[in-house]
# Entry
Amino acid sequence: MKLKEIRPEQYARQVLPLTAPLWAGRRTFEQYVAQTLEMAAGGYGRRNYRTIGLYDGAKLVASFKRYERVLRSGSRRLRAVGFGAVFTPPEYRNRGYASVMLASALDGARNDGCDVAYLFSDIRPQFYAELGFRALPSRELVLRADALPWQRLPIAALTPDDWTGVRRCFELTERSRESAFVRSVLVWEWIATRMRHASEHASGHATNLVVRRGRSVRAYVFGVRVPERDTYDLDEYGFAGDGDAATIPALLRAAAGDLRRIAGWLPPENARALLPKGTTRRRKRAIFMMMALRAEHEPLIAAIASAKRGDFCWASDHI
# Structure
């Protein structure tokens, strides 16, 4: 058995027809294929993303998507390898193929100089725990929209010209954190493409707003309005300074409009303090898991696991 890279067009032919019922969501199969190929052809896809298969002879018996990110811990920069869309065709299940595939991939990442591995488990987190991944805080926050203050703000819909300002807000929001994923220009392009695809939400309409002062973006929120659930599903927010941080609750209320609830992943600790308590509960899907590929990084995983007030990353980082 061998691990081999699957070229995007081959992956589209051999794997996507099988995974569409799981992950296509509200997209047609044609959209699912086209968007998957677009992701692979983008700047991030060409440099930091691969589709990998385990072959038993000539048979493709399991597959996954491999992502590379940079994680900062204090002043250090660590190489992080992410695993997504782990899949075994029904006729090959219960034979240990997925375990062999991921164990081999982890060994390869370790030998290649990667420091940590991560994933978001939508199905069977215990399977990944048996491979050495540790489940980390993965929670959801639910708020009453009318519990947030109203404030008159210069609110506008996000435009392509706003992305530089959004990136600056994000960096200023994240600077107080001890550890976090780093977002390069390519990662931002990847996030923007996925938002345009609307691939992360099963329903709803994108409602991404910014607050501008002159030409400068001072705060932003990403999310979708889901009227059938009476909810604004929050993905992320950011702000340029302390005064701008105070606008986030009102910006979220504006995004929710006449919807009753605001729900989303529990924001990281530095941003969590901007919102009232609400209802916090453990997520049943997209459980964040990590593994140290070198013993020296075990304390980092333990520190993330002990986080009480917020999650490690935003929903926008989901793979």
Summary: The chain has a mean pLDDT of 96.
